[in-house]
Automatic annotation (TrEMBL):
Signal peptide: none
UniProt xrefs under Gene3D superfamilies: NAD(P)-binding Rossmann-like Domain (3.40.50.720)
Keywords: Oxidoreductase
GO MF, any single term: oxidoreductase activity, acting on the CH-OH group of donors, NAD or NADP as acceptor
Record-linked NCBIfam families: PRK07231.1
Residues forming coiled coils: none
Pfam families attached to this UniProt entry: adh_short_C2
SUPFAM superfamilies: NAD(P)-binding Rossmann-fold domains
Protein name per UniProt: NADP-dependent 3-hydroxy acid dehydrogenase YdfG
Family, as annotated: Belongs to the short-chain dehydrogenases/reductases (SDR) family.
Length: 256
């Protein structure tokens, strides 16, 4: 288990799914975790002994206030997990400009705004840890390869992938490591929405689509949130002290 004792982490989109799993795993590894979402995840914060705050990741003002809050409440920031994101399954000819802007606002601009806001706090505490401080961005296998019907989502997750690499080079001198995690289809609400969308598009039953999607992964099943959370904890820890700009793919072989 990675040792994160004494570290302060913030996770966006932490109410459920991958965000909640990452928050629990970071706390289990010893970090003090601030969980954020559109509505403050108070129950999760209570469960893990952390902090909770409402945060709209598309708002510059919210990010500025959140950084001031975590500095006052916890003393700073060592780990930022940019997890908040939306899914969209629509043919490109049916994707509206509003769809495009909404998805990019959360999935891309939210990562940019969070990273920009967090850098000063992360830089302040980077000297405390052998591997410096860390940003972990949740991308997707859809940020590595295309998928029909998911062009808008592909665009956002591909942007996160390359934004991560640029930040890794730019922030290395400040001892801030920046890496991305690329899940396949994970058994979360979003993963189930994907199955629902595929079933509707093919006009077949959900169980049949679930079997198809599971078979697309060479390991033969969907991933579990803990699989992704383990990758987040590793990248946040000193065990990944020489990893920055890396892509950690957690997809059961889907993109192999």
């Amino acid at each position: 288990m990675a040792d994160l004792d004494g570290r302060i982490a913030l996770v966006t989109g932490a109410s459920r799914g991958l965000g909640a799993a990452a928050a629990r795993a970071l706390a289990a590894a010893g970090a003090k975790v601030a969980v954020t979402d559109i509505a403050a995840p108070e129950a999760l914060a209570s469960e893990i002994g952390g902090l909770a705050r409402a945060l709209d990741v598309t708002s510059e003002d919210d990010w500025a206030a959140t950084m001031a809050w975590i500095k006052a409440e916890a003393g700073g920031l060592d780990i930022l997990v940019n997890n908040a994101g939306l899914w969209l399954f629509k043919p490109i000819t049916e994707t509206t400009l509003d769809d495009w802007r909404r998805l990019h606002a959360v999935n891309v601009e939210g990562v940019f705004l969070g990273t920009r806001a967090a850098v000063p706090l992360l830089a302040e505490r980077a000297h405390l840890w052998r591997g410096g401080t860390a940003i972990v961005n949740l991308s997707s296998v859809a940020g590595i390869e295309g998928a029909a019907g998911a062009t808008c989502y592909n665009s956002t997750k591909g942007a996160v992938r390359l934004f991560t690499k640029g930040c890794a080079k730019e922030l290395a001198a400040a001892r801030i490591r920046v890496n991305s995690v690329h899940p396949g289809v994970i058994d979360t609400d979003m993963g189930r929405h994907l199955v629902d969308d595929f079933a509707a598009a093919q006009q077949i039953g959900n169980n049949e689509v679930l079997a198809q999607v599971s078979a697309m992964h060479p390991l033969g099943h969907l991933g579990e949130p803990q699989n992704v959370a383990d990758a987040v904890v590793f990248l946040a820890s000193d065990r990944a002290a020489f990893s920055t700009g890396s892509e950690v793919v957690v997809d059961g072989g889907l993109s192999a």
